[in-house]
């Protein structure tokens, strides 16, 4: 993976990849993310649409063939996208682990006093 | 249905957006826009939130269609369009309405507008200064236009600078 692809994902991209572990259309992604984060992360349509185009270009997600019944375009994560998502998850777990370690030693020190 | 027409010109789209939302709060909902002429329809005060966006392509260009479909699907109504500008609204009952939810996409939007305004300002300045020496009215008009364009450009640059400052600390 190219070095420029090793940085942290934006919150929007992380949640888009997460939501697209099953096929969804744009509005479905917005709703799912809003629900999961209990209204904390509200993806603006301008931001979401731009991110979807970029992610398709990078091959992390792909549009599904449009069905005749619906003009709404659905997207789904690709294998490459899954890999990126897994790597990001590992990075986030490391952050949380280290954060908790510091928290615990602070608490222990306070309990000792 | 009660209607009214208002003629007004804005050089800063955020000011324009604010004005449309103030009108909506008073129960005047924008239903159309053509070159400085706004059509308002009387309705329930505060029923809609308005946003204005500058697109990558003209609104009637085929490449803009997927995004506009996407907006409609998300419950956003396209009220009017003018070149690459689109006037959008969403029912206030659907919750807060923001087109951009992160810093990078906001910066990109400002940059897109600057890239359109800046060449116009430069051309007007160039013509203005050339013709100015001849004492013509056109020279004044060109210089005036250059100034009118330069003001929002500098305003957008300030906004970008402010957003970029945050970039080092926060995603």
What does this structure look like?
The complex is a heterodimer of chains A (113) and B (171). Chain A is mainly α. In chain A, 60% of the residues lie in helices and 8% in strands. The N and C termini of chain A lie far apart (48 Å). With 171 residues, chain B is an alpha+beta fold. Chain B has two domains: 3-94, no CATH class; 103-170. Helix content of chain B is 49%, strand content 22%. Chain B is built from four helices and six strands; from the N terminus they run βαβββαββαα. In chain B, a hairpin with a 2-residue loop joins strand 2 and strand 3 (37-42). Chain B is globular and about 55 Å long. Classes of the chains: A mainly alpha (113), B alpha+beta (171). Chain A binds chain B through residues 8, 10-12, 25-27, 30, 41-51, 71-73, and chain B through 53, 66-67, 69-71, 73-76, 95-96, 98-102, 104-105, 108-109, 171.
Identify the notable features of this structure and list them briefly.
heterodimer; A: 113 residues; mainly alpha; B: alpha+beta; three-stranded antiparallel beta sheet
């Amino acid at each position: 993976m190219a070095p420029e692809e090793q940085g942290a994902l934006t919150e929007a991209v992380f949640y888009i990849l997460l939501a697209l572990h099953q096929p969804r259309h744009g509005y479905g992604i917005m709703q799912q993310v809003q629900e999961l984060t209990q209204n904390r992360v509200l993806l603006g349509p301008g931001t979401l649409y731009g991110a979807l185009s970029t992610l398709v270009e990078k091959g992390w997600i792909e549009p599904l063939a449009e069905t005749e019944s619906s003009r709404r375009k659905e997207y789904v994560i690709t294998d490459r996208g899954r890999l990126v998502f897994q790597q990001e998850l590992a990075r986030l777990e490391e952050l949380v682990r280290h954060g908790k370690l510091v928290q615990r030693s602070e608490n222990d020190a306070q309990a000792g006093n | 249905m009660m209607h009214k027409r208002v003629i007004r010109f804005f050089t800063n789209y955020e000011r324009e957006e604010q004005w449309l939302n103030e009108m909506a709060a008073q129960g005047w909902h924008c239903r159309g826009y053509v070159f400085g002429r706004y059509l308002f329809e009387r309705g329930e005060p505060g029923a809609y939130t308005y946003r204005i966006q500058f697109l990558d392509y003209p609104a009637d260009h085929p490449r803009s269609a997927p995004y506009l479909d996407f907006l409609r699907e998300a419950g956003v109504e396209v009220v009017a369009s003018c070149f690459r500008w689109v006037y959008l609204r969403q029912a206030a009952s659907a919750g807060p309405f923001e087109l951009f939810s992160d810093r990078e996409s906001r910066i990109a939007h400002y940059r897109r507008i600057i890239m359109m305004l800046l060449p116009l300002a430069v051309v007007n300045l160039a013509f203005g200064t050339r013709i100015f020496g001849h004492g013509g009215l056109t020279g004044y008009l060109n210089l005036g236009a250059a100034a009118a364009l330069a003001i929002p450009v500098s305003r957008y640059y300030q906004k970008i600078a402010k957003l970029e400052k945050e970039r080092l600390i926060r995603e």
